[in-house]
Amino acid sequence: MVKRKLVPYLLALPGWSWLALFFVAPIAGMLALSLTTGDVITGFRQTFHVANYVDAIATYWEQISRSLLYGGSATVVCLLLGFPMAYWIAFRGGKHKSTYLLLILLPFFVSFVLRTISWKFTLSDNGVVLGTLKSIGLAPDDLAVLNSAPAVVLGLAYNFLPFMVLPIYAVLERMDPRLVEAAYDLYATRTQAFLRVILPIALPGVFAGGLMTFIPTSADYVNASVLGGTHNTMVGNIIRTEYLVNNAYPTAAAITFTLMGLLLLGIFSYARALGTERVMEVQAR
Amino acid sequence: MRDHHPRPALPPALHRGMTQARLSRRGMLQLSGLAAAGFALSACGIGGQKSEAVDAEDFWAGKEETGHLRFANWPLYMDSERTQLKKFTEATGITVDYKEDVQENASFFGKIQPRLANGDSIGYDMMVLTNGMELAKLIALGYLAPLDHARLPNFAEHAGELYKDPDYDPGNTYTVPYASGITGIAYNPDFVDREITSIADLWDPAFEGKVGMFADPQEIANFGLLRNGVNPAESGMSDWEEAADALREQREAGIVRAYYEQDFIQPLTNGDIWMAMAWSGDIFQQNAEEGTNLQFVVPTEGATLWTDLMMIPVTSEAPVDALELMNFLYRPQIAAGLTEYIGYVPPVPETQRLLRERAEDASGDDREYLEELSASPLVFPSDADYDKLHSYVTLAPEEQEDFNSLFQAVTQS
Amino acid sequence: MSTDTAHPVRPDTTPRAAPAARPRRRIDWGKYFTWAVLAWLFVPITFMIAFSFNDVSGRHNVRWEGFTLRWYGQAFAYRDLTEALLYSLAIALLTMLIAGIIGSLLGLALGRHRFHGKNSTNVVMFAAISAPEVVIGAALLSLFLLAGVKAGFVTIVIAHVMFTVSFVAITVRARVITLDPKLEEAARDLGAGPWTTFRLVTLPMLTPAIMAGGLLAFALSIDDYIITSFVSGEVTTFPLWIWGSTRVGIPPQVNVMGTLIFVVGVLLAVVNVIVARRRR
Predict the structure, then answer these.
(1) Per CATH, which fold does C80-250 belong to?
(2) A45 interface with C at CB cutoff 8 Å
(3) Which residue in chain C has the smallest CA separation from B289?
């Protein structure tokens, strides 16, 4: 029946075309733009000027590598905070599991921009947190957190924590607890049970959570501009400035493309290091 | 890979996407066809942007009042009742659609530029931007309507001499001022225990980590130049390089805490920074409204006076109405009302007298506020202050890229 | 650990949940840790809510100056802020609707059928979800610039649908995969046509997933700042207005609206939990 065969195509068509038109085509358009030369006044002409990339990378290498560093640090922070949390909720959350998950998500009903600005007030040198600590002598008087790399990294971790917790929770929650019991029955210590049984099962969740955290954090610019100071500029800030402030579209597109390339490279090497095959195996179970 | 095993919601579906990527090179090939199409679409680049320069007489020929006007301004640059606009509508019958859509000169320019290049309406008939690079670009590109000064009698009569025939727009061909401000130094005496008088104080290691500078290339360049004893308006490439060096030195010494886009008041008030480059009106408002004691100084080396300007895009659909509003805002009483709310330097000197009179008629808090306002050197700078005030350097569009990258390298470290 | 012994879904496993099998009573560090992190998550929110009640005199809502309900009475005093919020809501609703429909169809196709281009669709969806917002925003702006399209309301909706549609599709696909095909077979055996089967059997079973996907799209849309900032043109959304108002001080109305949106979110969530409990 020809008609039935058409059904999936008809179903997929609107979504597929939307993605093709407004995701794939723009990326291609950006690639084209990154190779043009010119300025706003004279217009941008396609000259296949690959040197745009060389210039952009040479000028902004520091910010690009810093972004990967900050994104990576935020991801590690999220993992350190998120894994124990996901673990505890999955195994000890009892009937309140969904309530805990909800509590993690609730702050995210408040606008991202507003949340980040709120941190700025909270972290100010004499503000609610530091001011109190200083007045009771728990922190040195000249302690400053705002406008520093840790402030940016913590802000990033704050804003993207659920992206780490939820995937890890999802895999742990599906895990059959009898596996751990079996490990204990075989005289495994707690550490052994964790390393040999729980961790391998949690790995796909960690993998997904890592990506879901690392990608947006390393490309963010809101946290760096609100919570950062000198030497904290990230590549997102540069992209924004080049596009929206300088109207230097070729440079902007070249940096954006470089960032995307680096992230893709990172994703694939990460997948390889973690063992894609095993991740899939676990999933297929 | 087949979908034959049950999976719960989002995350596993995501790993699947992730882990599957390497299996679908064929899929990638299918995609590249699409990409090629997109590429073909864009191989042409973005066309030339410049419009033909418009002659004033040609522009105004046949233009008539439409009774409706769309006006883009900065946030909180008029009270929330839009008092002045209501009065305008009462007086002329022209209704105004007022939008607080200008948040930054550069990004606003980025938004309207493609439309102006196409000769399309930008959705506004009149807007307020600062004298600076974007203004120079707008003029160079022929995007602004030349003003018909025959219809701006109030400007001719009431505008202060300083605001007429400026460097950035000789003969006020395209713009008239909305309000001005001084970029000087503000400090918080709760933390700074000496009097601050000069830009050199911003380089004092005693204030390590407690100084705020502006991120805007032109603003920060001016302070670097003034510190080096150069008048910004007359500076050139080598001056800029030296200014950038001085600013970099200040940054590397750890003196600068952050480069602020515009939100410097709050950290200055709560002590995150002790002193900063600052805009006069903001300091005045903060002191008047919150009883803070922030000090604003025009430094001995000099400071800059910037002006937010009203202008009409060439694609305006109601240019005559826009002119009428410009003219209306130069009525001294109206200008005084505006100044009362925004606290920046009005282009109409007479407002000082009018505000003094209003203070005499008022009582209580209002009276106190109006007295403070009308006496404030931040709103009505003295002649001595004006002597120390410089204009921005007017950059030709082809100089802007170098200028920007020089100073962005300082602020976007 | 909580003392319940009967987990509603898998009553035979929970009481013996792994680490709890240790006999000694120990301090439940995990609990303290979880609550500490939760507290951290709520710090700025608490601050925001508290300052919606702050009796500020100036434009900078930073220092505590006394309690007032005034700002709730004047929540809509800033016309542009109100307008920005309405824009955000309208965009989010449209996004929810469009992304909800085309995403569900896509999810259905992916979960149920095999077709040419399925793999590439999956890759594109994955890429669209994982692409950083700056990249999406910049790419869309590039396209709009190249094509000479005016940025504005329409381009924002286009962008929002684009980055949320994959989330909807994935959520729906996950549900489609778990559906028992026997139910639909049974319906067909009873003489229902394909459309009737879909309407009376498949659709009702998919509704929760479609709703979840749609709500996710709504939430992602209303919160978005980065992508919107690239493609917004002359339209100012709620997050964009907040960003812009930092120049002159964020008025307490922003805290009020933030608090109200938060409260609506809390209520929705609570209702959701209660309904979910009842269903069991």
Answers:
(1) MetI-like fold (1.10.3720)
(2) no
(3) C58
